[in-house]
Automatic annotation (TrEMBL):
The chain crosses the membrane at residues 12-29. Pfam families: MOSC, MOSC_N. The keyword Transmembrane applies. InterPro entries: MoCF_Sase_C, MOCOS_middle, Pyrv_Knase-like_insert_dom_sf. This is Mitochondrial amidoxime-reducing component 1-like. Keywords: Membrane, Transmembrane, Transmembrane helix. The keyword Acetylation does not apply.
């Protein structure tokens, strides 16, 4: 190679490196801008319902309208009862959900007093669970939430028997386990890892993807015009159900930030992609015979780069605080 051509190629490499560095820096600035809490907010509606699901896949906690609910990095929490810190596994230590056992959606919970959870289910006597006594001394077990390993502790034989009776009509086979920690440790779900705005601590407890999810009721209303039997918003298992001031179905697809009340702020981190869960009627525990609403969602809510249709948005907490029903909901004002 002559010395001129070597100088030319060195120059070309130099220009290439400079361009690449400049471009990377530009992308970083764009990302940083989009990751900064907005200064201006625009009201979009109010919080119609807040859902805490003490046991994964089961019914939400019954709450009084006036209750203030804490939002911290692990999820919603009320009187010592936290969202999705209880879960059912089987004898092979595999996560059990209503996808395989639809009757789980009829397992209801209410709080008798702080930390005193009452479980009920059709045809079963109620059973009380002292959440304060759970601590970390139960038998340690290894299980997974959608292929993501998670350490859990057994809750107790009495509860295993109750669940086995209700779900299998047997003495054993199912176990109730709890999340023994006060911090998030689960790895980010593999489907979520490439989302640019998700943080390590957004992963929650036994949640599928993140600790918080918001459903726009206007979107569900629009979906319900497309299907023969309307779905209950609860079938989408949102932490928050938003009632918009002026119904704008799917407006949430374009939001980057959500603020609830005066203090709680979330970054929108991903669309919520859907499996067969929303096909289970929450009142009857029966799967929709025509595979709705999932089949209809597949026709118009399949986004590029995602394998399943999306409705609702996953949120990552960026400013903690408390929320209550009817709180004003804001999004970034551009
Ligand atoms: C536990 O559940 C998994 C997934 O549904 C299933 O493949 C496995 O056979 C079950 N194990 C037992 C012992 O029931």
């Amino acid at each position: 190679m002559s010395s001129t051509s070597s100088a030319t190629s060195k120059l070309a490499i130099g220009i290439g490196v400079t361009l690449a560095t400049g471009l990377t820096y530009w992308y970083y600035l764009q990302w940083k801008k989009r990751n900064t809490v907005p200064e201006k907010w625009r009201r979009v509606g109010t919080l119609e319902q807040i859902n805490i699901f003490p046991i994964k896949s089961c019914a939400p906690l019954k709450l009084e309208d006036s209750t203030e609910i804490d939002c911290d990095i692990l999820g919603l929490k009320y009187l010592g009862c936290r969202d999705r810190t209880l879960m059912v596994i089987n004898d092979s230590n595999e996560m059990i959900t209503a996808r395989a056992y639809p009757r789980m959606v009829l397992i209801a919970t209410k709080l008798l007093a702080p930390q005193r959870l009452i479980l009920s289910a059709p045809g079963m006597e109620t059973i009380e669970l002292d959440l304060g006594a759970l601590k970390a001394d139960g038998e340690q077990l290894k299980t997974m939430v959608w292929s993501t390993p998670v350490q859990v502790r057994s809750v107790g034989a009495k509860y295993d028997k109750w669940l086995s009776k209700y779900l299998l009509d047997k003495e054993s086979g199912m176990r109730l386990v709890h999340y023994p920690l006060e911090k998030p440790v689960k790895a980010i779900n593999s489907r979520m890892v490439r989302q640019p705005f998700i943080l390590k601590d957004d992963r929650g407890t036994f949640n599928d993807a993140t600790s918080y999810m918001l459903m726009n009721l206007a979107s569900i209303k629009e979906l319900n015009t497309r299907i023969p039997r309307p779905v209950d918003p609860l079938q989408f298992r949102g932490s928050f159900q938003l009632k918009m001031d002026t119904d704008e179905p799917y407006a949430e697809d374009h939001w980057q930030w959500v603020k609830i009340g005066d203090e709680v702020i979330f970054r929108v981190v991903a669309p919520c992609t859907r499996c067969i869960f929303p096909n289970i009627n929450v009142n009857t525990a029966i799967r929709d015979p025509d595979g709705e609403p999932l089949n209809t969602l597949k026709k118009y809510r399949l986004f590029k780069g995602y394998a399943t249709p999306a409705i609702g948005i996953h949120l990552g907490l960026r400013s903690a605080g408390s929320v209550k029903k009817n709180a004003v909901v804001y999004v970034e004002d551009k």
